[in-house]
Amino acid sequence: MSEIIVEKQHKKKELLLEQLKKIPIVQLACERSDIGRATFYRWKKEDAEFATAVNEALTTGNSLVNDMAESKLISAIKDQNMTGILFWLKHHHPAYATRVELAMKQPISEQLTPEQEQIIQQALQLASLTTKEDYENPTITN
User: Fold this and answer.
1) Which residues contact residue 96 at a Cβ distance below 8 angstroms, ignoring those fewer than 6 apart?
2) How many CB atoms lie within 10 A of CB 56?
3) Is the pTM of this model over 0.70?
4) Does residue 75 fall inside a structural domain?
5) How do residues 115-129 score in pLDDT, each as one tens digit?
6) In principle, which of 2, 61, 81, 113 could form an S-S bond with 24, CB 3.0–4.6 Å?
7) Residue 102: inside a domain
8) So which domain of life are we looking at (predicted)?
9) Residues whose CB is less than 8 angstroms from the CB of residue 32 and which lie 6 or more positions away in sequence, other chains included
10) What is the DSSP letter of 113?
11) Is the alpha carbon torsion for 61, 63, 65, 71 positive or negative?
Protein backbone atom coordinates (compact mmCIF):
# COMPACT_ATOMS: atom_id res chain seq x y z
CA MET A 1 0.00 0.00 0.00
CA SER A 2 1.13 3.52 -0.64
CA GLU A 3 2.19 5.72 2.22
CA ILE A 4 -0.78 8.06 1.71
CA ILE A 5 -3.29 5.20 2.03
CA VAL A 6 -1.54 3.86 5.12
CA GLU A 7 -1.62 7.33 6.71
CA LYS A 8 -5.35 7.77 5.93
CA GLN A 9 -6.09 4.33 7.32
CA HIS A 10 -4.14 5.15 10.49
CA LYS A 11 -6.13 8.39 10.97
CA LYS A 12 -9.44 6.55 10.44
CA LYS A 13 -8.42 3.92 12.97
CA GLU A 14 -7.55 6.63 15.51
CA LEU A 15 -10.89 8.36 14.93
CA LEU A 16 -12.71 5.06 15.33
CA LEU A 17 -10.87 4.32 18.59
CA GLU A 18 -11.83 7.75 19.95
CA GLN A 19 -15.48 7.07 19.10
CA LEU A 20 -15.35 3.67 20.84
CA LYS A 21 -14.01 5.38 23.98
CA LYS A 22 -17.04 7.71 23.98
CA ILE A 23 -19.73 5.19 23.01
CA PRO A 24 -18.66 1.52 23.15
CA ILE A 25 -20.99 0.37 20.37
CA VAL A 26 -19.20 -0.77 17.20
CA GLN A 27 -22.08 0.11 14.87
CA LEU A 28 -22.32 3.71 16.13
CA ALA A 29 -18.56 4.21 16.21
CA CYS A 30 -18.29 2.98 12.61
CA GLU A 31 -21.10 5.28 11.45
CA ARG A 32 -19.58 8.31 13.18
CA SER A 33 -16.17 7.51 11.71
CA ASP A 34 -17.56 6.82 8.23
CA ILE A 35 -16.11 3.30 8.25
CA GLY A 36 -17.99 0.15 7.31
CA ARG A 37 -18.40 -2.54 9.93
CA ALA A 38 -16.85 -5.09 7.58
CA THR A 39 -13.77 -2.87 7.28
CA PHE A 40 -13.63 -2.51 11.06
CA TYR A 41 -13.72 -6.28 11.60
CA ARG A 42 -11.17 -6.86 8.82
CA TRP A 43 -8.79 -4.36 10.41
CA LYS A 44 -9.33 -5.98 13.78
CA LYS A 45 -8.60 -9.43 12.36
CA GLU A 46 -5.52 -8.39 10.37
CA ASP A 47 -3.94 -5.93 12.82
CA ALA A 48 -3.22 -7.33 16.29
CA GLU A 49 -2.13 -3.94 17.60
CA PHE A 50 -5.40 -2.38 16.43
CA ALA A 51 -7.37 -5.27 17.97
CA THR A 52 -5.68 -4.63 21.33
CA ALA A 53 -6.41 -0.90 21.04
CA VAL A 54 -10.06 -1.68 20.21
CA ASN A 55 -10.40 -3.84 23.33
CA GLU A 56 -8.87 -1.09 25.47
CA ALA A 57 -11.14 1.55 23.89
CA LEU A 58 -14.22 -0.62 24.49
CA THR A 59 -13.19 -1.13 28.13
CA THR A 60 -12.74 2.62 28.55
CA GLY A 61 -16.09 3.29 26.88
CA ASN A 62 -17.88 0.71 29.01
CA SER A 63 -16.41 2.27 32.15
CA LEU A 64 -17.62 5.69 31.05
CA VAL A 65 -21.16 4.42 30.42
CA ASN A 66 -21.15 2.55 33.76
CA ASP A 67 -20.08 5.73 35.56
CA MET A 68 -22.85 7.72 33.86
CA ALA A 69 -25.43 5.06 34.74
CA GLU A 70 -24.33 4.96 38.37
CA SER A 71 -24.47 8.74 38.52
CA LYS A 72 -28.04 8.71 37.17
CA LEU A 73 -28.98 5.98 39.63
CA ILE A 74 -27.64 8.00 42.55
CA SER A 75 -29.54 11.04 41.27
CA ALA A 76 -32.71 8.94 41.12
CA ILE A 77 -32.14 7.79 44.71
CA LYS A 78 -31.65 11.41 45.83
CA ASP A 79 -34.94 12.28 44.09
CA GLN A 80 -36.59 9.50 46.14
CA ASN A 81 -37.28 7.37 43.07
CA MET A 82 -38.43 4.08 44.61
CA THR A 83 -37.37 2.00 41.60
CA GLY A 84 -33.83 3.36 41.86
CA ILE A 85 -33.79 2.81 45.61
CA LEU A 86 -34.94 -0.80 45.29
CA PHE A 87 -32.48 -1.51 42.48
CA TRP A 88 -29.60 -0.21 44.58
CA LEU A 89 -30.62 -2.18 47.65
CA LYS A 90 -31.18 -5.43 45.72
CA HIS A 91 -27.68 -5.25 44.27
CA HIS A 92 -25.75 -3.74 47.18
CA HIS A 93 -27.37 -4.99 50.40
CA PRO A 94 -27.58 -8.69 51.25
CA ALA A 95 -30.89 -8.32 53.11
CA TYR A 96 -32.61 -7.17 49.89
CA ALA A 97 -30.93 -9.58 47.47
CA THR A 98 -33.05 -11.91 45.37
CA ARG A 99 -33.09 -15.36 46.91
CA VAL A 100 -33.98 -18.72 45.48
CA GLU A 101 -35.59 -21.17 47.85
CA LEU A 102 -35.50 -24.85 47.02
CA ALA A 103 -37.93 -27.17 48.76
CA MET A 104 -38.33 -30.89 48.29
CA LYS A 105 -41.73 -32.27 49.24
CA GLN A 106 -41.13 -35.90 48.39
CA PRO A 107 -39.31 -37.74 51.18
CA ILE A 108 -36.50 -40.09 50.31
CA SER A 109 -37.96 -43.54 50.75
CA GLU A 110 -35.31 -45.64 49.12
CA GLN A 111 -33.18 -47.80 51.39
CA LEU A 112 -29.65 -48.78 50.54
CA THR A 113 -28.91 -52.42 49.94
CA PRO A 114 -26.29 -54.05 52.17
CA GLU A 115 -23.95 -54.06 49.16
CA GLN A 116 -24.43 -50.30 48.63
CA GLU A 117 -23.84 -49.64 52.34
CA GLN A 118 -20.60 -51.64 52.17
CA ILE A 119 -19.40 -49.67 49.12
CA ILE A 120 -20.13 -46.37 50.87
CA GLN A 121 -18.36 -47.52 54.03
CA GLN A 122 -15.29 -48.56 52.04
CA ALA A 123 -15.25 -45.20 50.26
CA LEU A 124 -15.44 -43.34 53.57
CA GLN A 125 -12.62 -45.44 54.99
CA LEU A 126 -10.48 -44.83 51.91
CA ALA A 127 -11.17 -41.11 52.23
CA SER A 128 -10.12 -41.37 55.90
CA LEU A 129 -13.45 -39.94 57.02
CA THR A 130 -14.33 -42.95 59.18
CA THR A 131 -12.64 -45.95 60.66
CA LYS A 132 -13.84 -49.53 60.73
CA GLU A 133 -14.62 -49.13 64.45
CA ASP A 134 -16.95 -46.18 63.69
CA TYR A 135 -18.95 -48.37 61.35
CA GLU A 136 -19.09 -51.38 63.67
CA ASN A 137 -20.00 -49.30 66.76
CA PRO A 138 -22.14 -46.41 65.51
CA THR A 139 -23.21 -43.72 67.96
CA ILE A 140 -26.42 -41.86 67.31
CA THR A 141 -26.13 -38.10 67.68
CA ASN A 142 -28.78 -35.45 67.18
Assistant:
1) 86, 89, 90
2) 13
3) no
4) yes
5) 998 998 888 888 876
6) 61
7) no
8) Bacteria
9) 19, 23
10) P
11) negative
